[in-house]
Design brief:
Helices cover 42% and strands 19% of the residues. It is α/β, with parallel strands linked by helices. It folds into three domains: 240 residues, Aldehyde Dehydrogenase, Chain A, domain 1 (3-Layer(aba) Sandwich); 185 residues, Aldehyde Dehydrogenase, Chain A, domain 2 (3-Layer(aba) Sandwich); 31 residues, no CATH class. The strands form six sheets. The protein has a seven-stranded mixed beta sheet with strand order 11-12-13-10-9-15-16, sandwiched between helices. The chain has a six-stranded mixed beta sheet with strand order 6-5-4-7-8-19, sandwiched between helices. Strand 7, helix 8 and strand 8 form a beta-alpha-beta unit. Helix 1 crosses helix 7.
Length: 506
């Protein structure tokens, strides 16, 4: 494990580099009292932050964007030290985070602007309707170990842009990048509305107790616990959970592009991505041609800090991957390349499995590692059926020469996102919603205005458009005549045909 100290006796978490075992740093284990104190300070500072409005907050968010870019090399080194990623994979996170910060900074004013819905009936034309977005005072964000900078970078900025204060709880496996993220906010002199709570599950539970909204990214099993805890407090939450994302390769696809894209989509970050390609369905006419192309591409992937992809984040995760491969081969699958730990740190060889069937663990459970199991299917109908035969529904890919066919198939896939002739594109586009169907989550990350409004309480305001009278038809004291008039008017605008006049059609 990367975190080596026992949570029952330790006061700090010691973090090690999984690629070589070296000590990378340490963080304190925050108890419930410490979390409560941090939350209280954030709540005290939040009203002033909200009062700045979107334009005032934009100024600080853009300064933070500059800090992220100016310190990208340092942040990359921190990422490398606690994750064992390749430099190529790690270096993407600061830039992607900066891009996301800029999006919310520049669009928050438009997204949060008061809205004035139209009256649904002429009766209410005398009223002015306004919908106001007011932030939850304190948003709790719990992030996983696979992208320790990019995950806070996805969820924290829209909450800050909305006017909320944020308490971030990074994974105990990779807490150092989250600490640096918050340090950068403080370093630019921004208002004190962002802090970090480090620790294990008890720290996360304490964060939930203090929050008004919780955004969680992690396993489905832990997500269930978070949902229960939030429900007990009657607070809203968003869950982005596990995935078992399918790729469908159709007979008309550009097979070279499909092999290259699927290899990247399945092996990026050593396959430790919720939207990694984890199942591949190939139409029979091109199966024998596609498979060696995929194997050749995977065999060429270099594993090292200076290579294409890096180590597994923990020994435990490496062992899960090994277990899935072992179970598959025991059930009749063939390893075409890879299939074993390298023997160095927590590295596991990029792996392609053939002769796989839908019942194998590598097809049903989230592997979260560098494995690509391939299944031959008769046609697109079978491919869609098998792609949908999963408890997960996070994302998918479709590979075809016909974009219209790809979109038609995408609309039949039970997943929150489908990329045609590409992989993971939607993650980098905050104007698109990212969320899981089935057991892959509840709610959506990003999605334009919806991605920031979710961190807000919506308030309805009605006001008169014209001078008011001393009383309204339905006010007390009641009157049969006035009530009859009011009902007649409501009926006239509530229905159609002769029913407007209290008559029944013949």
């Amino acid at each position: 494990m990367t975190a080596v100290d026992s949570p029952s006796v330790a006061t700090v978490i010691t973090v090690r580099n999984p690629a070589n075992g070296s000590v990378s740093g340490s963080v304190p284990i925050d108890d419930a009292a410490t979390v409560a104190a941090k939350a209280a300070k954030l709540r005290a500072a939040q009203p002033e932050w909200e009062a700045l409005g979107p334009r005032g907050r934009k100024r600080w968010l853009l300064r933070f964007q500059d800090w992220l870019l100016d310190n990208a090399d340092h942040l990359t080194e921190v990422l490398l030290s606690e994750t064992g990623k390749s430099h190529t994979d790690a270096a993407l996170e600061p830039v992607a985070t900066a891009d996301n910060v800029g999006y919310w900074a520049k669009n928050a004013e438009e997204f949060l602007a008061d809205r004035h819905p139209k009256a649904h009936s002429p009766i209410y034309q005398v009223k002015r309707f306004t919908t106001v977005c007011r932030p939850y005072p304190l948003v709790g964000v719990i992030t996983p170990w696979n992208f320790p900078l990019a995950m806070p970078g996805l969820d924290v900025p829209p909450a800050l842009a909305a006017g909320a204060a944020v308490l971030l709880k990074p994974s105990e496996v990779t807490p150092l990048s989250g600490v640096e993220f918050a340090r950068g906010w403080a370093e630019i002199g921004a208002p004190p509305i962002l802090d970090v709570a480090t620790g294990y599950g008890d720290t996360g539970a304490a964060l939930i107790e203090q929050s008004d909204f919780v955004q969680f990214t992690g396993s489905t099993a832990t997500g269930r616990k978070v949902a229960v805890a939030c429900a007990q407090r009657l607070i809203p939450y968003g869950l982005e959970l596990g995935g078992k994302d399918p790729a469908i390769v159709l007979a008309d696809a550009d097979l070279d592009r499909a092999a290259n894209g699927i290899a990247w989509g399945g092996l990026f970050n050593a396959g430790q991505v919720c939207i990694s390609v984890e199942r591949i369905y190939v139409e029979a006419p091109v199966y024998d041609e596609f498979l060696p192309k995929l194997v050749d591409r995977v065999r060429s992937v270099r594993q090292s800090v200076d290579g294409d992809t890096g180590a597994m984040a923990t020994e435990g995760q490496r062992d899960i991957v090994a277990g899935h491969v072992k179970a598959a081969t025991a059930a009749g699958a063939r390893v075409l390349t890879g299939g074993e730990p390298t023997g160095v740190g927590t590295f596991f060889e990029p792996t392609v499995l053939a002769d796989v069937d839908q019942s194998m663990t590598c097809m049903t459970d989230e592997t979260f590692g560098p494995t690509l199991p391939v299944v031959k299917v008769a046609d697109e109908t079978e491919a869609i059926r098998l792609a949908n035969d999963s408890k997960y529904g996070l994302s998918a890919t479709v590979w075809t020469a016909d974009p219209h066919r790809g979109e038609r198939i995408a609309r039949r896939i039970e997943a929150g996102a489908v990329n045609i002739n590409d992989a993971a594109v939607n993650v980098f586009c905050p104007g698109l919603p990212m969320g899981g169907w089935k057991e892959s989550g509840i709610g959506y990350r990003a999605g334009g205005a919806a991605g920031i409004i979710k961190y807000c309480r919506q308030q309805a305001i009605t006001a008169p458009r014209i001078p008011t009278q001393k009383s309204e038809l339905m006010w007390y004291p009641s009157s049969k005549r006035r009530s009859a008039v009011a009902r007649a008017v409501m009926r006239a605008f509530a229905t159609h045909g002769v029913r407007r006049f209290g008559l029944k059609p013949r």
